Amino acid sequence: MAENDEKTNTLVLCVHGIGEQKAGDTIDTLAAALEKNEAARVESECRWLVDEYKIPGSVESRFQDHFQCHIRAFDTNEQRTTYAEVFWADLSRPRHGMVGVLYELILTVLGMGNIVRENVYAAYGKGSASASLAGLFIGLMHACIAPLNLLLLAVVLLQLNEKVRTEPLLVMGLIWLGLIVSWLFGKKGPFDSHLFNQFKAGLVIFAMALSLIALVATICPLAIPEAITGPQIGDRTLSLPLDGKQDVLSASLIAALLMLSALTALVVGILMLHALTRTIRAKLTGRPARKAESVVMFETVCTIMALLWATLSMAFWSIAVPALGDRPHTEDDTNIQAEIETGYIGINTSLFEIPLMVFPYLVVALLLVILSLVVIYLFRNSRLNELNGTLDQATDIRETEDQECFRATRNRLLLNGRLSIIICAMPVIIVGLLGLLYGVLGRTLVDEWLFISVPIFVGVCGYVFSAQRSGLSMALGVGKDVITYLKRERLPSNRNIWFHPQRERIHQRFKTVARTMIESTKADKVVVVSHSLGTLVAVQSIKELLSESENHQYFRSDLEWSALITMGSPLTHLFEHYFGSTFAVPNGLFKEKIPTWKNIFCIDDFVGTTVGNPKGDWPLNYAVKKSGHTEYWKDRHTLDLIRHHI
What we know:
The protein is an alpha/beta fold. The chain is built from 20 helices and 13 strands.
């Protein structure tokens, strides 16, 4: 009995990072790598713990949610080590399959609005002009552009049936039926997402407007114009010819999309000018940018969001428009029609052919942006190769002579305002260069070159969806994890108060696992090992535990929180920098209770790097050789540092 009393009980809390994690995988990898004593008795268990999270101010539900907690225990005569996993990947699980991946791609692009909002609030505050402009952009994307694209998709699919096509009221009746069924039988959560509410409101408003147009077209068919005229380009006017009732819905949607897309592009242009003005002012005055201006990335995210959505929607339009059938052209457009029939689409064509005309430009712009990022990556990688040769073990970067070399591990270049200027200006530059080539080389050669890019783009996308669908799904899962953690919503009980539901729920899981396992194992030492976004979960959850008086028993004097190990952490380099002091390295009581904090980063990790002050002694930052963002659990140098505290 006395021998048992001397045995130490160590609890290792393991928090996984971003990506498609499976329950138990992370803890199995860590425990198998650390525990080499073949004489140890091994116990394996999966507990279902109660998900204790409750939305502030809400009525307690009759039902209880549970989550998995995988436990691995290794028992020897001297020590019992228990590994417990904090699993949260099920809260942002991506969909699979062709349709599922496409759906996740759309949700991820729209979900980038959460990143925009968090960054602009942290930099300028909620009431600033920049926040209003960013909010206008997010509102246009969620409440206008996305609903109109969905309605266009529904109308196109319904109009493939010849009998339905000539009856706009029947088309709208079927659309309303679909909306009602989705509302009645759709999955309902404990609260409605703020951005999703914008989407639903826009969908209903545009559906009502479209129903009114369908009613007028049915009652007064003579009121339908022969064509909708657009802006004049040169000596011609863009036209949208209509073939009676069957065209009125699709024509109205495309016209509305073009107008609202132009407004959205104007907002993005203003954001670009804002970034450009800030950069020029800093250069001319010679003064460094204000702190708020040095941490903004919302302009870049808005631009990328608009470019990705434009590419997706133009690709859809390019497929959907021909499905509507042949369109009559005015007499002035006969030569344009001849060009279309021979495979070339000129600048002066009807609005129905605009998607086919614009799509190649967007493809080329997107490919050039990707190419520029590849060049940046290759330049950065060459510097990292030099640094990699100097590392033969986990290196305390305070001991390195040239600490400036670790600047190469930072990735802020990819998110700064200058990149947004490049991205914004890219389509404009391309159009200008192609216009010059039209005059020098002739439009036939340029058109052929443009149209070569489309099958290449479609071929690459087809390959990704068929052969690399799991990899794309994983990448979307990473984006979804970040968006889930940053998503801000309104409290159901008080619409003036905002909160982060999924973030708070993840933190509650950490606290539930910590409290449950400390009590059940009677631990006298706790070690926390976390990776990637899980490092934020660990740090923020421990801060909350320390701030809640009912949890002080878990930090009593006879319970040692031996060490906090973070690996590939974006805490300082990305989250504190772009999203404010909420993610600052804690001090005071946190440092007193957890005196040892070691942060480990691979020098080529594109997500995580140093935490806090690289020259400071808390946390201590250790650099290891190149192995990317996901191999920490298997890295021998990393495991040696962890094993030292277990």
